[in-house]
Amino acid sequence: MPVDRTTPAVKGARIDLRGMTKRFGGSVAVDDVTLTVEPGEFMTFLGPSGSGKTTTLNMIAGFTDITAGTLEIDDRPVGDTPAHKRDIGVVFQHYALFPHMTVAENIAFPLRQRKISKDERRRLVAAALETVQLPGHAARYPGELSGGQQQRVALARAIVFSPRVLLMDEPLGALDRKLREFLQLEIKRIHREVGSTFVFVTHDQEEALILSDRIAVFNNAKIEQVGTAHELYERPATLFVARFLGESTILRGAARPEGAGSTLTGDGFAVRAPGRVDAGRDAALVVRPERLRLIPDEPGSAGRGASGGTPGGNAVPVTVLEEIYLGAARKLEVVLPGGARGLVREQAGALSGLRAGDRATLTWHPDDGVLLPDDPTIERIFT
Amino acid sequence: MSARLARAALWVTGVLVAAWLVAPTLVVIPLSFTDKVSLTFPPTGWSTRWYANFFGDPAWVAALANSLLVGVLVAVVATVLGTAAAFGLTRWTSRRGAAAASVLLLAPMIVPGIIVAIGVYAVFLKFQLAGSLAGFVAAHTVLALPFVVVSVTASLQTFDVRLETAAASLGAGRLATFRRVTLPLIMPGVVSGALFAFVTSFDEVVVSLFIQSPSLVTLPVQMYSSVTRETDPTLAAAATMILALTTVLVTGGLALSSRRNRAR
Question: ipTM score of the complex?
Answer without folding.
Answer: 0.81
